[in-house]
């Protein structure tokens, strides 16, 4: 046992010395390998972080949302639906919500306007999300102006700037009073954007939804679990798609690695020949090659992962966020909370280290089976 | 004693470029004696050395090492025997560039898993015995031809082999260094090491070092073999 | 088809492992047909060199199969909410009939790779390649299984359809939209616990008997295999209850979650190690008089038996601790 460990130690020592002696060749390989891992890891970490953000947002959302469609398009919901739907057995409460998007032409940004159920700002006042406040350069007490649906600018006083755990939730948010919002957006007084229902017993979802659709044929009830599921599928799909695209890069890398591994330089061949001639076995050379691959993979994996972590969570994935975020390139910038889990790391490992290792099995074996008497010929 | 019975080594068998490097050689090599394999280049000396030194397996015939047949042992057993029984000195020094003389000397012992400190001590002692201990930490490319040859001999001795196998050791040495090399071999011989040298260098063949001189031509023995 | 990064990773790794195993298997067939240890021909020398390649391949297969096994469960766990009614990995796996067979195939290939490496290790101790034929027959068995696993897994993930919102209709519902999936079917907890301990004791006893007196290798191997199955059922039926401290949560997969300190990983590793080394003792036993193995095999079998015993005791000990210190009581 002690001999086994010593043998590994000697061979690792020699491997590391060998790697350092060929800085040029191994450095190039390491650089490309690290880059590939960096790109893949960034895609993975970023989409996963966004997905979690979205989940966090939705966790807060109501169990059932009722929308109305007309000719397949969303429409505002008549306030009169509230009473009818609220009286269905099992529905705790049915509340109308007022909210919508607003495109700011001068600053080229999208904001979400919302009338909060609790503690709405008074008339003529708004609360701003962090990113909106930054964009407008506004602090508490300042006056900000937005152009209403009729083209007329409206001024509001900032009551406060929102700071919350999930930046995605509040970054682009503008909270406003109901009265101001109706004037600003032109939603009639008897209409709401949608209805939210509180339902205590999950077993009753099915019956309630059925009753709502029977009551109003143009109603479109949506369950929170369905939204979660859809978001999840969309985000996973998006990152999967990115991975597929980048796998072309991985493939190119594998060809490169194969080439490096098979194209043993004359010097390397001679060295392995010497080692075999002076008493190293094929299994010793295989061990040498194993440690060589491990050292390269581990370095590239750690470096690539750490760089990607910094890239995604400290620079907000500045390099390719526009492609990945997708829903709006105009979305105000926000920072993702750092997060890393086992599954992401293993996925990354399987997508990069496993193919690399398998690519190098046969070339390593070829190198290891050079005849010991080759140096004498 | 190493006995070989009617061994042959054929390369590219069955193809148009088939070569019989060694064809039906029988030979006994006695322990603690020196054997010289002599003959022109291409006579099969090197291939025969490789077969004796467990570097390659014969295409036919049998090899016994101290009464034990080793002909068709799996490679890992042959390597093990090679490591513990034989030390090799090659025509070129075949040292690895970029690492020190000391590390080169220690290389053959790495797979045995000996403790680093013991190994290092032994390597230093071996280099001292050959008078090159001052060059232990020097990289190979900084050594002179004579120093490199001595380091190569030290590497062959690191695992305390019973048999030294040398293939044209003086081919790249001048007369002075060749005589030095013969001196080292005499020293080893006096300590009881078995030596097998393949060479057609007159300095070696006429050095009165050998108890047995075997002449090879075209893969066959033409003179000098003693058989048990 | 769900294009989840983890799924992509699983498909890629299985494909690669499947291909390389087939490649190794091709040379395995050549070895079975043309192996002749007495020959010094170039073909024989080349085949002997190939054995190094094949054992390297199987080593990687074992390592990567283990990673892939755990990732499969992790992925199943992270996508369960895509399926109405699923509560954890178990729900994902039962979303299509291929879910569990894929898991079983992964386990089997891992297991066989372990056994193969034990045979290989024994073979390397002998100087006349004593186990070359059994070893490569086993490899022939492994190749179709890895291929089957690759295909089953690919089909499983391709046909899985998440229940997502579609734009044409508001709500998708099926019959168990209530959100409460049925618990996993399992035997009654307390009798199962008794069976688990009985089997542990009997297996340990036969193991000790083999270790001390070299008797009953097959019995020990058989009991190890049986105990493996019993342990898995016991985990589902009763041990998991104590770990989750919930009287009706029969799930072998939630153990792998962070909420339970990833206890599943070491536990399953120990169970697998016990089974592979225990069965390994029996697999080696018929060859104890073959060729040069007589000298080396008993020591190797002893090592395996010791490993299996240690792993068995660790698992039983850990399970007992968990049961004793759990706040759940099934007796009341």
Shape of chain C: flat
Biggest interface pair, counts: A-C, 54 and 47 residues
Number of domains of chain C: 2
Amount of helix of chain A: 55-70%
User: What is the number of helices of chain A?
Assistant: 12
Query: How many strands, what sense, and barrel or not for the largest sheet of chain A?
Result: 6 strands, mixed
Measured distance between first and last alpha carbons of chain A: 37 Å
Strand content of chain A: 15-25%
Helix coverage percent of residues of chain C? Answer: over 70%
Domain module count of chain A:
2
Query: What is the arithmetic mean of pLDDT of chain C?
Result: 86
Q: What report would you give on this structure?
A:
The complex is a heterotrimer of chains A (about 375), B (about 230) and C (about 325). Chain A has twelve helices and 13 strands. In chain A, strand 1 and strand 2 form a beta hairpin. Chain A is elongated, with a radius of gyration of 30 Å. The two termini of chain A are about 35 Å apart. With about 230 residues, chain B is an alpha/beta fold. In chain B, the strands form two sheets. A six-stranded mixed β-sheet of chain B has the order 6-7-8-3-9-10, with helices on both faces. In chain B, helix 6 links the parallel strand 7 and strand 8. The longest helix of chain B is centred in the C-terminal third of the chain and has 16 residues. Chain B is globular and about 50 Å long. By secondary structure, chain C is mostly helical. Chain C has two domains: about 160 residues; about 140 residues. Chain C has nine helices and no strands. Chains B and C meet through helix 2 of B and helix 2 of C.
């Amino acid at each position: 046992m002690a001999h086994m460990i010593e043998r590994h130690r000697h061979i690792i020592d020699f491997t590391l010395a060998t790697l350092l002696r060929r800085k040029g060749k191994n450095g190039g390989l390491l650089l490309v390998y690290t880059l590939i891992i960096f790109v893949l890891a960034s895609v993975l970490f970023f989409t996963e972080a966004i997905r979690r953000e979205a989940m966090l947002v939705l966790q807060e959302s109501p169990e059932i949302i009722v929308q109305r469609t007309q000719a397949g398009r969303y429409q505002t919901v008549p306030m009169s639906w509230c009473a009818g739907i609220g009286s269905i057995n099992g529905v705790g409460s049915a509340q109308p919500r007022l909210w919508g998007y607003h495109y700011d032409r001068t600053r080229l940004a999208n904001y979400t306007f919302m009338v909060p159920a609790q503690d709405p700002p008074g008339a003529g006042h708004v609360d701003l999300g962090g990113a909106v406040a930054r964009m407008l350069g506004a602090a508490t007490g300042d006056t900000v102006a937005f152009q209403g649906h009729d083209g007329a600018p409206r001024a509001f006083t900032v009551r406060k700037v929102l700071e919350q755990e999930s930046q995605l939730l509040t970054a682009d948010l503008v909270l406003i009073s109901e009265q101001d919002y109706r004037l600003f957006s032109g939603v009639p007084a008897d209409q709401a954007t949608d209805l939210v229902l509180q339902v205590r017993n999950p077993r009753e979802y099915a019956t309630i939804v059925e009753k709502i659709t029977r009551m109003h044929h143009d109603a479109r009830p949506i369950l929170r679990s369905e939204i979660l599921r859809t978001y999840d599928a969309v985000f996973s799909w998006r990152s999967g798609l990115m991975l597929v695209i980048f796998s072309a890069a991985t493939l190119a890398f594998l060809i490169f690695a194969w080439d490096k591994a098979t194209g043993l330089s004359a010097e390397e061949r001679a060295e392995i020949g010497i080692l075999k001639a002076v008493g190293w076995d094929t299994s010793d050379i295989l061990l040498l090659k194993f440690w060589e691959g491990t050292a390269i993979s581990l370095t590239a994996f750690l470096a690539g992962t750490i760089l990607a972590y910094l890239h995604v969570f400290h620079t907000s994935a500045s390099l390719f966020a526009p492609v990945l975020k997708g829903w709006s390139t105009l979305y105000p910038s926000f920072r993702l909370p750092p997060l890393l889990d086992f599954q992401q790391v293993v996925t990354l490992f399987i997508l990069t280290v496993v193919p690399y290792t398998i690519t190098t099995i046969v070339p390593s074996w070829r190198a290891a089976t050079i005849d010991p008497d080759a140096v004498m010929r | 004693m190493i006995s070989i019975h009617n061994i042959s080594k054929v390369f590219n068998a069955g193809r148009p470029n088939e070569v019989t490097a060694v064809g039906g050689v029988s030979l006994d090599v006695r322990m603690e004696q020196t054997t010289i394999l002599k003959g022109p280049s291409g006579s099969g000396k090197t291939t025969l050395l490789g077969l004796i030194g467990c570097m390659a397996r014969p295409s036919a015939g049998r090899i016994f090492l101290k009464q034990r047949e080793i002909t068709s042992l799996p490679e890992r057993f042959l390597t093990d025997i090679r490591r513990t029984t034989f030390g090799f000195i090659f025509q070129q020094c075949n040292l690895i560039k970029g690492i020190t003389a000391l590390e080169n000397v220690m290389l053959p012992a790495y797979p045995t898993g000996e403790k680093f400190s013991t190994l290092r001590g032994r390597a230093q002692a071996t280099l001292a015995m050959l008078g090159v201990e001052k060059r232990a930490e020097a990289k190979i490319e900084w050594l002179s031809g004579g120093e490199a040859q001595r380091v190569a001999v030290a590497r062959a001795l690191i695992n305390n082999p019973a048999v030294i196998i040398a293939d044209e050791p003086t081919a790249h040495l001048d007369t002075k260094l060749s005589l030095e090399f013969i001196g080292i071999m005499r020293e080893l011989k006096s300590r009881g090491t078995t030596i097998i040298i393949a060479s057609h260098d007159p300095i070696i063949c006429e050095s009165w070092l050998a108890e047995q001189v075997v002449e090879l031509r075209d893969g066959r023995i033409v003179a000098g073999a003693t058989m048990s | 088809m769900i294009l989840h990064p983890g799924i992509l990773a699983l498909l890629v790794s299985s494909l690669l492992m499947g291909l390389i195993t087939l490649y190794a298997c091709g040379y395995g067939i050549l070895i079975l047909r043309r192996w002749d240890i007495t020959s010094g021909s170039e073909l024989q020398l080349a085949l002997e060199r190939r054995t190094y390649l094949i054992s390297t391949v199987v080593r990687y297969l074992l390592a990567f199969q283990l990673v892939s096994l755990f990732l499969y469960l992790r992925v199943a766990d992270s996508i369960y909410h895509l399926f109405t009614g699923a509560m954890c990995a178990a729900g994902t796996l039962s979303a299509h009939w291929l879910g569990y067979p894929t898991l079983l195939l992964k386990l089997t290939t891992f297991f066989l790779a372990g056994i193969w490496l034990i045979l290989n290790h024994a073979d390397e101790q002998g100087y006349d390649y004593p186990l070359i034929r059994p070893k490569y027959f086993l490899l022939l068995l492994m190749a179709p299984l890895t291929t089957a696993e690759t295909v089953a897994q690919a089909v499983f993930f391709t046909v899985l359809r998440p229940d997502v919102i579609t734009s044409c209709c508001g709500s998708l519902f099926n019959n168990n939209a209530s959100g409460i999936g049925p618990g996993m079917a399992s035997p009654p907890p307390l009798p199962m616990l008794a069976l688990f301990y009985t089997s542990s004791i009997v297996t340990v006893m036969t193991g000790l008997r083999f270790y001390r007196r070299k008797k009953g290798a097959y019995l020990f191997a058989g009991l190890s295999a049986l105990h493996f199955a019993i342990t898995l059922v016991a985990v589902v039926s009763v041990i998991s209850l104590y770990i989750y401290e919930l009287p009706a949560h029969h799930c072998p997969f939630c153990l792998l979650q962070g909420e339970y300190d990833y206890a599943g990983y070491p536990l399953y590793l120990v169970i697998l190690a016990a089974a592979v080394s225990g069965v390994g003792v029996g697999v080696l036993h018929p060859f104890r008089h073959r060729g040069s193995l007589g000298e080396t095999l008993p020591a190797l079998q002893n090592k395996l038996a010791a490993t299996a015993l240690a792993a068995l005791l660790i698992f039983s000990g850990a399970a007992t601790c968990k049961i004793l210190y759990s706040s759940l009581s099934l007796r009341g």
